[in-house]
Design brief:
The complex is a heterodimer of chains A (161) and B (279). Chain A is an alpha+beta fold. Chain A contains 5 helices and 5 strands, in the order ββαβββαααα. Chain A is globular.
Amino acid sequence: MPEAVDIRLTVNGKAREGRCEPRKLLVDFLREDLGLTGTHAGCEHGVCGACTIFFDGEAARSCIMFAVQANGVELVTVEGLANGEKLHPLQQAFHEHHALQCGFCTPGMLIAALDFLKVNPDPTEDEIREGISAVLCRCTGYVNIVKAVKAGAEVMRRLTP
Amino acid sequence: MDEALRILGQYQGEARVLAGGQSLVPMMNFRLATPVAIVDLNRVAGLSEISDADGVVRIGAMARQRQIEFAPLIAEKLPLLGAAMRWIGHLPTRTRGTIGGSIAHADPAAEIPMVLQTLAGEVVVRGPQGERRIGASDLFLSPLTTSLAAEEIITEVRFPAMPPEACYAIEEFARRKGDFAIAAIAVMLLRDGERCTMARLATAGIGPVTVRLRDAEVILEERGLSEASITAAADKAAELVEPMSDQHGSADFRRHLTGVLTRRAVQKAIRERAHAGSG
């Protein structure tokens, strides 16, 4: 069994550290070692997208990366989106448009949508559908998620002219 | 890089090279791959540069698919490769997925090997005996198998820059956007009115490895770009492939798709260049 290794990283703006085996997946490290259970482990092979996080500013699947690969990296998880009690504009839009039912995919959906809106801040409906195809939702049929992303994008464009 | 090669050599084929991890780690999570050790190239510096000189575009093996998708140099010199990126998985998987990893993995449905075939690119490989170069036509042997030795690592991918006037397109059929291709065709053409001075056609997802469809290319080069000629080339393409049969589609269905997608790809390449020319 290989020795455990130290991992130092920044998560949601805070310096964090932990120690785990090199084979441990990043999603498990976040949930089990750092107690950040907002990031969900769904399919665990990179298909469903529930585990999507920001890795040095770009969305990536945390279930197909090793925790040791995050050493020295800046992560943002769903816990880092809201400002205290104030929801992020995209979270607020998800709330207002009822863009979730069970909520399991929501953390990944939010991160993937935010990443895609950085690349394309003013998307058409088709582009939103392609953007969120990175994450699977088994409840909503996506209609309200598309509405929420569109509405959230509008608010975000107003906030960052 | 020397350290990576040394460690890989020590394990005598029992270690695996980790690039973007978008295929290897899912296989490990399923215990379909159980390497004794992982050699992580993410810690090796200098493997993700994109540059061009003397008509050749050089892309470091660890260049991310997302990096390639948005690189101005790729849009200018290798627009077919840029277009291929949008067919690979999703933006969050392209954040990590690399060009070298996709080629070394050699999934029959992967788009990057198809573009390597279409553009007659090559990979630069390092191993215990030093450096060698392998052309696309000598690289892909069977599903998930290349002509790389177990102790070799791809360090760079090279493509001849596309001529600025080249027409190009990718047509792909999959159940959902971002899924593996059931069949895909990439095309690059040089035309002079109705004449076609050079044609390149390659496949993904159809047979066990990506192949060039040379006999179909010849039809376009000899008979031009009339509807009749495009139909003849598409029919020939469907005849040339050796399609696989699986739960996603029968061999007959893939053969049918080969013809349909070849026709669409050639027509799209011509149409979009015509728009670009008039715009």
